[in-house]
């Protein structure tokens, strides 16, 4: 068995926003793939697939190596979706990888350093577009960065920073209940975030966001957390696509290609309601385990089963002792939700070192109100 990935590490995406907002060091959310596979018989190749020969069951990598297979599982994940809005690619920062998270941190800290040179009324505006869990978590974390460490660094500059959270729909966290959406908005506003709902973006320019209602918002740093789509590379693999994802049977076999499987964000699998399953980690993890068992069934000549997703609920953190959790009819807010969020994320983070260092950073941040990862470490 061989695992192929363009990175030699696994990224724990749910904590990327903490890297972007100086709460965690980047290496705490990345785990070496070879380390994870050390005790297994699985080989690893760093690279990208460039083509698949369906007839001969071969996949060619960008290193020119050709791997043969009996079964190919495609788990390419997702990419940022700009919905065709002008200027997103050029002027917004994405948040899908460790490199992008470091880039956001660098941009914000560099603009803050610029602001510190002015002792006048010049303002710095940071905007996050998209009021889903990533946008909410990022806005709350930036607000706390400004109120805490940046205020201690240079109070005048910190007082001149505005954080906007812009959502096209009527409420934040649309996948949560209305009461938790309302609570999230209230908590973010208490932290000083300017929350704009029913506000659709028409275009991004270098220092401004143009809205569909004709208004403009100044924005020196714009972070795009408004949408995801299946990883575009999947389109090169000559497999059937539905929307931006690979079209699959309920068994998770790719339509018309029984030896190909798709799982996670890239798989266009549908739930009981006929809608695509959400692009979230529990879907990907459940599908991974499920497909391993399906292939074992094929080998043993047994019948295949349809995949059924077990939704275990959703959670999002807003800030220090502020979070929302929804598990079926159970709804938690405030400190209990925040502790549940901390525990679960620590549990799923890969690697003992990463768990210990993340916990240490969190405790340090909590006790000192400081954030030790405010470095600008790019090559400029
Ligand atoms: C910022 C952020 C926060 C999130 N927060 C949450 C959360 O709180 N809770 C939750 O449930 N979900 C969250 N998600 C979604 C969750 O991370 C995904 O649903 C989950 O990781 C999907 O798993 P996957 O295996 O399909 O894709 P991924 O985990 O994205 O893995 C895809 C892999 O494919 C590799 N790859 C991509 N393109 C290529 C290529 N061309 N060649 C070779 N390899 C390639 C990548 O390097 C990556 O390792 C978040 C996502 C993001 C971006």
Our estimate of the beta-strand percent is 25-35%
- Give the mean pLDDT: 95
Bound molecules: flavin-adenine dinucleotide
Task: Specify the biggest β-sheet.
Answer: 5 strands, parallel
Low-pLDDT stretches:
none
CATH topology assignment of the largest domain: FAD/NAD(P)-binding domain
Q: Please tally the helical runs, counting DSSP H or I stretches of 4 or more residues.
A: 10
Work out the number of β strands: 25
Q: Name the overall outline.
A: globular
- Structural Rg: 22 Å
Architecture (CATH level 2) name of the largest domain: 3-Layer(bba) Sandwich
Give the strand order of the largest sheet, numbering strands 1, 2, ... along the chain.
10-17-11-12-13
Describe the structure.
It is a single chain. By secondary structure, this protein is α/β, with parallel strands linked by helices. It has two domains: about 1-80 and about 230-300, FAD/NAD(P)-binding domain (3-Layer(bba) Sandwich), CATH 3.50.50; about 90-225 and about 315-370, FAD/NAD(P)-binding domain, CATH 3.50.50.100. It contains ten helices and 25 strands. The chain has helices at about 15-20, 35, 90, 100-115, 135-155, 155-160, 180-190, 280-300, 335-350, 350-370, and strands spanning about 1-5, 10, 30, 45, 50-55, 60, 65-70, 70-75, 80, 90-95, 125-130, 160-165, 195, 200-205, 210, 215-220, 220-225, 230, 240, 245, 255, 255-260, 315-320, 320-325, 330-335. The strands form nine sheets. A five-stranded parallel sheet has the order 10-17-11-12-13. Strands 5-6-7 form a three-stranded antiparallel sheet, with no helix packed on it. Helix 7 (about 180-190) links the parallel strand 12 and strand 13 (about 195). The longest helix is centred in the middle third of the chain and has 21 residues, at about 135-155. It is globular and about 70 Å long. It starts with a strand and ends in a 12-residue tail after the last helix. The mean pLDDT is about 95. Bound molecules: flavin-adenine dinucleotide. Flavin-adenine dinucleotide binds near residues 77, 264, 265 and 266.
């Amino acid at each position: 068995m061989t695992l192929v990935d363009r990175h030699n590490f696994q990224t724990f995406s749910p904590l990327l926003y903490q890297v972007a907002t100086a709460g965690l060091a980047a290496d705490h959310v990345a785990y070496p793939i070879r380390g994870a596979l050390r005790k297994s018989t699985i080989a690893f190749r760093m690279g990208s697939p460039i083509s698949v020969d369906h007839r001969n069951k071969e996949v060619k990598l960008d290193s020119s190596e050709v791997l043969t297979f009996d079964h190919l599982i495609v788990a390419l994940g997702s990419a940022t979706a700009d919905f065709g809005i002008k200027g997103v690619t050029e002027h917004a920062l994405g948040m899908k990888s460790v490199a992008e998270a470091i880039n956001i941190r660098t941009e914000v800290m560099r603009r803050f350093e610029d602001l510190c040179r002015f002792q006048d009324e010049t303002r710095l505006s940071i905007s996050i577009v998209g009021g889903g869990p990533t946008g909410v978590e990022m806005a709350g974390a930036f607000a706390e960065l400004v109120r805490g460490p940046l205020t201690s660094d240079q109070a005048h500059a910190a007082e001149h920073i505005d954080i906007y959270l812009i959502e096209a729909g009527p409420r934040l966290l649309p996948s949560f209940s209305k009461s938790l959406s309302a609570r999230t908005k209230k908590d973010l506003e208490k932290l000083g975030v300017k929350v704009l709902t029913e506000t659709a973006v028409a275009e991004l320019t270098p220092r401004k966001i143009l809205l569909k209602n004709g208004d403009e918002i100044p924005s020196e740093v714009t972070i795009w957390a408004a949408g995801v789509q299946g990883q575009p590379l999947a389109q090169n693999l000559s497999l059937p696509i539905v929307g931006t994802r690979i079209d699959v049977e309920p068994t998770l076999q790719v339509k018309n290609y029984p030896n190909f499987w798709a799982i996670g964000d890239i798989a266009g699998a549908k739930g009981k309601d006929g809608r695509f399953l959400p692009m979230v980690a529990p879907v990907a993890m459940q599908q991974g385990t499920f497909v391993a068992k399906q292939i074992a069934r094929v080998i043993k000549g047994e019948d295949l089963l349809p995949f059924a997703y077990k939704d275990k609920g959703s959670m999002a953190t807003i800030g220090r002792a502020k979070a929302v959790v929804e598990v079926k009819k159970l709804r938690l807010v405030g400190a209990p939700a925040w502790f549940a969020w901390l525990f679960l994320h620590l549990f799923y983070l890969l690697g003992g070192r990463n768990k210990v260092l993340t916990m240490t950073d969190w405790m340090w941040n909590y006790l000192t109100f400081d954030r030790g990862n405010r470095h600008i470490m790019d090559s400029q």
